[in-house]
Amino acid sequence: MLGSLALLAGPTYLWLLVTIFLPLMAMLYFSFLTIAPIAGPGGTFTLSHYVDIFTKPVYLINLKRSLIMGLEVTFFCALVGYPAAYLLARQIKNRWREALLLLVVLPFWSNALVRTFSWTMVLSDNGLLGQWLHVLWPGGPSLDLLYSYKAIVIGLVHAYLPYMILTCYVSLQAIDGTLAEAALSLGASHRQVFQRIILPLSLPGLVAGSILIFVPVVGAFMEPRVLGGQQGITFGTIIESQFTTSFNWPLGAAMGFVLLAVVLIVMALFFPLLRKHLN
Amino acid sequence: MSVVDIKQVSKRYGQTLALNNVSMTIAQGEFFSLLGPSGGGKTSLLRSIAGFVEPDEGSIEIDGKPMLNVPINQRDLGMMFQNYALFPHMSIADNIGFGLSVRHRSKAEINQRIKELLSLVHLEGYGERRPRELSGGQQQRVALARALAPRPRVLLLDEPLGALDKKLRDEMQIELKKIQREVGVTTILVTHDQQEALTLSDRVAIINGGKVEQLGSPREVYERPHSQFVASFLGNANFFTGVVCGQADGMTQIRLPAGQVIHSSHGAGRSIGSRVTAAVRPEKLHAAGSNGPGQPCNRLSGRIAHEIYAGNSITYWVEIGAQQVSLTAQNNTAPALSMGAEAHLEWAPADTIVLD
Amino acid sequence: MKALRAVFAPGYVGLVLLFLYTPIIVMMIMAFNQSELYQLPFVFDLKWFRALAHNDDLLEAAANSIIIAIVNTLLSVTLGTLTALALSRHHFRGKAWFELLLLPSLTMPWLITGTAMMLFFFWTGIGRGLHAILLGHVALSIPYVVFIVRSRLKAFNRSLEEAAQILGASAWQTFWRVTAPLLAPGIVAAALFAFALSFDQFVISYFLAPIGISTLPVEIYSAIRKGFTPEINAISTLIILFSMGLMIVFARLSKFAGEP
After folding, report:
1. Which end of chain C, N or C, is less packed with Cβ atoms under 10 Å?
2. Which CATH number covers residue C151?
3. Is C142–A37 a contact, with Cβ atoms under 8 angstroms apart?
């Protein structure tokens, strides 16, 4: 029995060991070294990378910036996505609902890079949005959003909105319709039904969606680079450049672990609610 | 001749003892029921016979052959599951033929058998349909046909009628009994429905807390329950606790706390002064003045506190001192008792069951 | 009021969809537009698709992507399905831990997964290249496959397998005649998901692709960074149509898979 179990699940865990767990351990090890032990004998033990991250403004400012970006993107996704999920789950019926839901999910299966890139064509001053705005409102203000923080947020909200709609939809449509009827029959107003029945019961979906969005957005580097231009420096892009251009792997590794710690703290804060959702 | 022989079987799940030293034998062709509340161990016992559960202790033999270490698929059993467990990706015919097909029987033989069984369960012409296209009752018949197709030594039924509504359930009970007689297969039924167990079975084992509370024919277990649990689980019962105050001519006298004396034709061998509990079925009680059968010699008086009207019968609750006693009368010519009125309850000593 | 509400629901969802589709539609329009600088008015031209046919770098990267996606699908579906069977059909101590071990590759930012793999593969001599990219893609895909196949396993009752066994089927017969056919829609859905995940994966591939070898997303990224050519619009249009086609098949299948 144990043998068949090992035979069934063994290869998977072996694979994950080599590709996820050992690399993470190696990265942790690197983060405490002065130089990466790649070319020759390695560096010596140091805490300086972690000290740098928490003392030098360039890292702190960008960590804060990435965190704020994560929160903002998550917030806008919830603001736009929750009502859409609510309408899909509780107002729109049957065949329409299925078709609209499919349409929501579809773009999320097209290449993320390509979708991000296409925003450059929409947002630049001579892009589509700008050109149409000039046609509609000659002499109006120029709409040069590209290469700004706003462009990054728009691109990220666009990329992650379907996650929020989906997780909220799943928990909203799982709410038994008779609960709302019961509340109404007990004298609750529609507003009270929403506040006291629907919202609390759909909260796990909102939390799950928020985590699914916050985690990758905090570590985003492609979207800031493509849409942010000079403005596009985030904690994620700094990590990326440690590995691809500056070749300071130990510093990059330490930054990666700081980012991972932030992600874990956020997950730990919300885990009780998330577990409820998974069950 | 015993087909299934269960010897001192115990099964523990963590802290709970699901089966506690259970023994019983089931005879060839018998319709045997395991009846009890959920969580009482009856399903564990059935699943032990099937092989899904491995007992910690004891042995289970089928046709004298110990089943320990015999794989499930070689035990030669048929089973109907609570949710029918029909294979959704196969036609009805393929479902029924599955057991023969995995035994590599010839196509012709399988088709012949499918035809026989479809006609046995009155589903001729349904062979090509899918399970989900059938109603609950029809699916249930398919499940029965599938279980019977390989001619199993023993048919196991795990709450097979639980999902049907009452009317259909009653019809299916008759059908099931008829088919079981026709096929003659030894059958073990797990149910929590006492009426179902009494209607269908040749013998019933009442199982509670992992133990056999009582085993016997439906008449025995209903008319002569050994314990308060069996008496109240099978139907309704009034309980009287008192002290034995006399033994004569096969009659036992029991003095109740308020001083009344009731008589029982059972309970011989109880010593005078011992404390006993007696059970009386509500339908065995008669209101004095109505035409009760025989010569009752038990008589208690009280006031009617409330009544429950159930169509074919009426149950009255009579306050006798601190105790409420229920009396069920057929809704026929008996004069209706009125609320608040004085009532005199009578019953025969033979109907006072002295519990162990 | 009632009329307003009747319009509001589809109206709002329509606006959200407009937001979601604007860049995609713009890209498709530009793929067929003659102007290199996205100038309007729109002039229909297939020249970017013709140019694409001669862009060997992009085509080679596309071929790499397709090969990796196919091998990734075969490997991750096999390993993931076996793991799903182990996790849902066996009960053992520490099972919760094994389930937990699937989560990191789902929930860590890809940036961290990617850089950790790059560092480790470099250090140990596994190196970078298509094999490394494949290692990474399979690691990302397995947990999704496990979850999709497991939810399918949960959807059909265990008693179906018990019924097969008691009717005389051996473990082998039970698997091939009952478990596998019932699992099939879930496995196909998982395969499509794994394919799409790998085909679209950029971050992991980016860190694991050495100079001179790339996958389509990596090639597109470097084209964007270098200064873009509208051929990217053309190939992106093809990718989007292809991915969406896959997704529609996936939706059909998962709908089918949802039925008990």
Report:
1. N
2. 1.10.3720.10
3. no
**C-beta separation of B154 from B84 below 8 A:** no
A50-278 — its CATH code?
1.10.3720.10
Q: Under an 8 A CB cutoff, do A20 and C105 touch?
A: yes
Provide, as residue numbers in chain A, all residues whose Cβ is less than 8 Å from the Cβ of C109: 215-216, 218-220, 236, 259-260, 263
Q: What is the pLDDT of residues B53-100, one digit of tens each?
A: 899 999 999 998 998 888 888 888 999 988 888 888 889 999 999 989
Find the closest chain A residue to C121 by CA distance.
A23
Q: Are strands B31-35 and B203-208 parallel, antiparallel or unpaired?
A: parallel
CATH class of the domain defined by B237-354 = mainly beta
Q: How many CB atoms lie within 10 A of CB C78?
A: 16
- The answer, for B151 touching chain C at a CB cutoff of 8 Å, is no
The length of chain C is 260
Do C20 and C113 belong to one domain? no
Q: Classify B2-232 by CATH class.
A: alpha beta
Same domain, C230 and C130: yes
Partner-chain contact C167 B150, CB within 8 Å: yes
DSSP 8-state symbol, C42: P
Q: Do C243 and C114 belong to one domain?
A: yes
* Tokens at A166, concatenated: 């989906």
Interface of A with C in 234-263 (CB under 8 A): 236, 239-240, 243-244, 249, 252-253, 256, 259-260, 263
Q: Containing H/E element for B346?
A: strand B342-347
Chains that touch B (3 or more CB pairs under 8 A): C
Closest-CA residue to A28 (of A264, A262, A249, A215): A249
Q: How many domains does chain C have?
A: 2
Q: Residue A171: helix, strand or coil by DSSP? A: helix
Candidates A60, B103, A19, B216; CA nearest to C126 is A19
Tens digit of each residue's pLDDT (9 = 90 or more) over B42-58? 999 999 999 888 999 99
- Among residues 9-38 of chain B, which lie with CB inside 8 Å of chain C? none
Chosen for mutation from B82, B89, B144 (greatest number of chain C CBs closer than 10 Å) is B89
- Above 90 in pLDDT, residue B270? no
Residue A166 has pLDDT above 50, yes or no: yes
**What gap in Å lies between CA B296 and CA B288, rounded to an integer?**
10
Q: Point out the least confidently predicted range of A91-105, B197-211, C200-214.
A: A91-105
Instruction: Tell me, yes or no, whether chains B and A touch by having 3 or more C-beta pairs under 8 A.
Output: no
Model's pTM, two decimal places? 0.77
Q: Which chains touch A (3 or more CB pairs under 8 A)?
A: C
- Please check whether residues C80 and C130 belong to one and the same domain: yes
**A113-148 residue pLDDT tens:** 888 888 887 887 666 666 676 777 666 666 677 788
Q: Identify whether residues C101 and C20 lie together within a single domain.
A: no
* Composition of chain A by helix, strand, coil, percent to 5: 80, 0, 20
Q: Does A86 contact C at CB distance below 8 Å?
A: no
Range of the domain at C206: 47-258
- Answer whether B99 sits within 8 Å of C168, measured CB to CB: yes
**Domain limits of chain A?**
50-278
- Name every residue whose Cβ is closer than 8 Å to that of residue A47 and which is 6 or more positions away in sequence: A32
Whether residue B266 lies within 8 A of chain C, CB to CB, comes out as: no
